[in-house]
Amino acid sequence: MTDLADPRATSAGVSLQCGSRTDVGRKRHENEDSLLASQPVFIVADGMGGLEAGQRASSAVIAEFRACVDRIDVVAGDVVAAVERAHTRVRAVSDSTGRGAGSTLTGLVLIDHEDFPQWLIVNVGDSRVYRLHGGEFQQLTVDHSLAQELIDEGSLLKADVANFARKNVITRAMGADNSKADYWLRPVVTGERLLVCSDGLSGELSDEAIKAGLTLGGSTQQTADALLAGALEHGGRDNVSVIVIDVIAGGVSSWHGVAIGEDQSDTRTEDTRPVQRVARNAAR
Predict the structure, then answer these.
(1) Any residues with CB less than 8 A from the CB of 259 and at least 6 apart, and which?
(2) pTM to 2 decimal places
(3) d(Cα 160, Cα 151) in Å, to the nearest integer?
């Protein structure tokens, strides 16, 4: 592993393996999900709007990040700018339809920050990023959803979300007003496995099942295939998108003077802000 004190550590020295899949599922007629899994960008966009509008919205999000692909000099400002451009493009898609349109945006971008490779995690909506390292499994993003708000208030148990009638109501979406992205910075750690997924996966599989899939799935592509198959076997009621990333080399072994694994404190760069509720289209 690269030690934090090594001034030569950059994202160019990070070696990754990645596998990805997206599928229409067993109930939908169109796949409104889009994904981009090409170093240094690993993002999922889950479109809303029905018919072709959702696909157009999610594709518009992905398009704004393609300029970052194959670059080794991406910085946080590039990601923020891409998010803002994507907001504008999704608003244009929405304005061109009679029913409106929107999209989630969730994922990781490998950037250089403070002279070291770091993950910049971005989230708008209820797609998710998970991390598995040393047997510890974490959800790194916080859902922008009515269900999460009620969980935070203590009026809904996480175990009851599956049966919550309004579980598909999200509180932020790309293209919607007052829907700023949340960002987190985390160190890139050799040996960690990361998952980016739409709610077509997390809505079908429990956290325990997702952890088991990441632990036992084999290669990144085999794991992505197995997780998607599991979602389909449990009903496949929504489109499903999965990206699995392994950090093979080039990550740090310590962070702020603490060995990785000893300190799991939250390092997000922005707190969750007041939000505007956005109901998913009934076609979802």
Answers:
(1) 253
(2) 0.87
(3) 10
Q: 6 lies in a domain?
A: no
- Is 205 among the domain residues? yes
For residue 209, which amino acid is it? Answer: A
pLDDT digits (tens, 9 = 90+) for 20-34: 999 999 999 999 999
Q: How many other CB atoms are there within 10 angstroms of residue 219's CB atom?
A: 12
Kindly state the tokens that stand for 126.
């209820």
- pLDDT tens for 138-180 read 999 999 978 777 877 777 777 767 767 577 789 999 999 888 9
Q: What is the CATH number of the domain that holds 90?
A: 3.60.40.10
Q: Which residue range is the domain that position 173 belongs to? A: 11-279
Tokens of 68: 């970052």
Does a structural domain hold residue 5? no
The total of structural domains in the chain comes to 1
Return the residue matching tokens 């990206």.
243
What CA–CA distances, in Å, run from 206 to 158, 223, 234, 282?
11, 16, 11, 24
Domain-located, residue 170: yes
